[in-house]
Amino acid sequence: MQSKVMEHEALKKYKPVDCRHFIDGAFIDSEKKVNNINPATEDVIGTIAIGGEQEVDRAVQAAKRALTGPWKSLSSFERSSILRRIGDEILKRKEELAFLEATDTGKPYALALEMDITRAAHNFYFFADYLTSMGTEAYQQDEKALHYAIRRPVGVVGMINPWNLPLLLLTWKLAPCLAAGSTAVMKPSEWTPMTATVLAEICKDAGVPDGVVNLVHGFGADSAGEAITKHPEVDAVTFTGDTKTGTAIMQSAAPSLKKVSFELGGKNPNIIFADSDLDEVIETTLKSSFLNQGQVCLAGSRIYVESTVYDEFMEKFTARTKELKVGDPFDEKVNVGSLVSREHYEHVLRYIDLAKEEGGMVVTGGTNRPDSLDKGCFVRPTIITGLGQSARCVQEEIFGPVVTVMPFDTEEAVIGYANDTKYGLGTSIWTNDLRRAHRVAHRIEAGIIWVNTWYLRDLRTPFGGMKESGVGREGGAHSFDFYSELSNVTIKL
Ligand code: NAD
């Protein structure tokens, strides 16, 4: 694998980075370290400092001091230009960042470049603009009173992040946090710490005052993650990750009544009616099933197809899935890279075995990696049929390149299947019947509903999940509300 990476002349100059904490404007180490592994080669590529209560406390104190330092006196236009400079710097270093993201996660380099890194920069540009154009609420109460809301920073925000879209999701939190004038203590996933480390450097280069952006590496429970969630001087915690971890964080944040925002797991249905444009459906379903090796919270992992087009769908979808190339993330022709770690690879393979035990049929994919690869955490895109609605593989989030497909007969039945889950994150509805599209959308229990598309985002819209998929919404004004405190001022006239 490494030799293929080295074939890419332009990428030769980049090297994996050793990951140290970034506290009060300086990189610092910990005595405790673990190895960082590239999942596609299973080689050790560097080290990660492992922080705990002590490092987190230093970071929180720095973030608290920074709230009343030079950061506080910057005008919104000055903050906005700092955000813009961070975006510029990300784009200037985009090949390097995409190299690090692909090496850390195993995802295709081209995907990292086009999606993760480009959108990370866009997160800063979006909130830089939003910050200088947003208004506030004001109400006139007859001739009696005038009410208006003022906004101030919420304070020190703990940011706990997953490994699937490391830089994209971290910047989705950091950009609005800085826009609102708050300060941050970030903890990336222990599996994918490299781009967060470079982001800390970029923030400093872009003129973010010391202490405003801090980074502590480490694990979750009994480590840096938990230390952030229970620190009494952290005012708010934003977390993206597994639903079970969300429960633990909520408990740990409860004694100090922190504000929380949770973006959690999903088991998202794709509902395909017979009147949809099947070829378009299939091309988008390939993405919603296997993009980023299926490790996307919004992945459409439960596919429901109207019975009259089920056979045609299966034939075309299976044929296109078999054409996807699995392998070296740095090979331009590769569509599906490696899963993020050996632990996660084994977790996904266990679900494929479970699907067979539950009576399912593996139509394509399964455990065997392509012959050309002798190591790495690769799982071929996998389609499973024949499972009932109560099967664990239909109910539980697998978070890999594995989808189940089931036929349905009526609109009523498929709405029932779609809602029959503890999750409520995303849904795609495919139909050319306008009335049905609205009708079904209004009855689906999910925070994000697409009609005839998937993953089409506008950063102004509310983003988040219902049921066990999340708490709160992010995006545009929703993000601003989380990273600020609103006070209402009433003036008697
Ligand atoms: P995870 O919950 O295992 O870990 C996420 C982060 O939480 C890591 O940084 C980890 O160190 C930390 N953590 C773990 N236990 C902790 C604890 N007790 N206290 C504090 N921090 C703790 O999730 P993951 O495996 O990294 O990510 C995959 C999950 O994330 C999937 O369920 C996926 O659906 C979800 N996700 C959701 C969204 C969304 O927007 N809804 C986006 C991406 C991923």
Summarize the SSE layout with pairings.
Layout: H1 2-7, E1 21-23, E2 26-28, E3 33-38, E4 43-49, H2 53-67, H3 70-73, H4 76-92, H5 94-105, H6 109-133, E5 138-141, E6 145-153, E7 156-160, H7 166-179, E8 183-187, H8 194-205, E9 213-215, H9 224-230, E10 236-240, H10 243-253, E11 259-263, E12 269-272, H11 278-290, E13 302-306, H12 307-323, H13 342-357, E14 361-366, E15 380-385, H14 392-395, E16 402-408, H15 411-419, E17 423-424, E18 426-430, H16 434-443, E19 448-451, E20 466-467, E21 470-471, H17 476-483, E22 484-492
Parallel strand pairs: 7-8, 7-10, 8-9, 10-11, 12-13, 12-18, 13-16, 15-16, 18-19
Antiparallel strand pairs: 1-2, 3-4, 5-6, 6-22, 11-21, 14-15, 17-20
This protein binds nicotinamide-adenine-dinucleotide (NAD).
Nicotinamide-adenine-dinucleotide is lined by residues 160-164, 169, 187, 189-190, 219-221, 225-226, 229, 240-242, 245, 248-249, 263-266, 297, 397, 399, 425, 465, 470.
Family: Belongs to the aldehyde dehydrogenase family.
Domain Aldehyde dehydrogenase: 29-488
Protein name: Aldehyde dehydrogenase
Offer a quick outline of the entry.
The protein has 493 residues and is of the alpha/beta class. The chain has 2 domains: 288 residues, Aldehyde Dehydrogenase, Chain A, domain 1, CATH 3.40.605.10; 183 residues, Aldehyde Dehydrogenase, Chain A, domain 2.
